[in-house]
Write a structure and sequence with these properties.
The protein has 282 residues and is mainly alpha-helical. The chain is 65% helix and 4% strand. Helix 3 crosses helix 5 and helix 8 packs antiparallel against helix 9. The chain is globular and about 70 Å long.
């Protein structure tokens, strides 16, 4: 390590030490709610609701979900109109990024489900993008006004249990459609046996995203931890959850879709043989 790198490392350590000492010595400004109330509201959204015109008070997760969906649809429309017609044989950076993303989910569908995987690849791409960008949405710190007139940061859409359950239900319906497409109505029985998948995928996704939200809320609650550390915690938890949960849900959906859509040979029914009457010889 040369002198320049040592000097930068020393300055960085000094800055961290000064911020740590300042965070410990900083006086507390008080809290409007207890840590228990903050944690409870992060899960149930009983206090911090947002007034939606024509509907009334709703959970902030709904506003986040509508915002993320609108942004993704607008981005898809702009890419289809202005970017895809300009694709070249030698791809540029944006074209290469889009092709790699589409190929990732398309190969995931083909690898785990060799049968009827055209629709599966499109669904995995849509679900993966929604989970990834929906999770990163909370890093933007978009503010909204609650029904009490206070400012509130919109959370990730899937940190609301209703959104996680609906995405789990949608993924389960996709798996059921694969069972019907591969084995007809006989596949419905095998798909219904895996009803536990609906609960498993929903609460795995909800629990993982909620854990990051609760840890961040806990760090922000205490003044002695609310300097520098929340930025690191929020970014690390959010990025890890965005990548891991996008991969986990799409992988599970592809695996079970491939298992359910695999054609099964039907055993022919044994024909009843009529016993021939004995021929009596004269």
């Amino acid at each position: 390590m040369n002198k320049k790198n040592r000097l930068l490392l020393f300055l960085w350590l000094c800055a961290v030490a000064l911020l740590l000492v300042g965070s410990i010595l900083a006086p507390s400004g008080g809290h409007e709610e207890t840590i228990r109330e903050a944690m409870r509201d992060a899960v149930l959204h009983e206090s911090n609701k947002i007034n939606l015109p024509g509907i009334g008070p709703v959970n902030p997760g709904l506003i986040s979900a509508v915002t993320v969906t609108a942004v993704l649809l607008a981005a898809a429309l702009l890419i289809r109109i202005f970017v895809i017609p300009r694709f070249r044989y030698v791809p540029g950076k944006l074209q290469l990024l889009l092709e790699q993303g589409v190929s990732l989910f398309d190969n995931l569908a083909k690898t785990n489900s060799p049968w009827r995987n055209g629709f599966l690849g499109a669904y995995l791409f849509g679900a993966g993008c929604y989970i990834f960008f929906g999770t990163l949405f909370e890093l933007l710190g978009v503010q909204a006004i609650t029904t009490h007139g206070t400012s509130f940061t919109l959370p990730a859409p899937l940190s609301d249990v209703n959104a996680a359950i609906m995405l789990g239900v949608l993924s389960y319906f996709v798996i059921c459609s694969g069972a019907v497409a591969g084995n007809g109505f006989h596949g419905i029985g095998s798909a219904l046996k895996e009803i536990s998948l609906l609960i498993s995928m929903s609460f795995r996704l909800f629990g993982a995203l909620l854990s990051g939200l609760l840890v961040t809320e806990l760090v922000y609650y205490y003044v002695t931890l609310s300097f520098v550390l929340p930025v690191v915690v929020a970014v690390l938890f959010t990025l890890l959850h965005a990548l891991i949960q996008s991969y986990v849900l799409t992988m599970l959906t592809a695996l079970f879709y491939g298992e359910m859509s695999e054609p099964h040979e039907r055993k022919p029914r044994a024909k009843r043989r009529k016993s021939a009457a004995p021929v009596q010889s004269n």
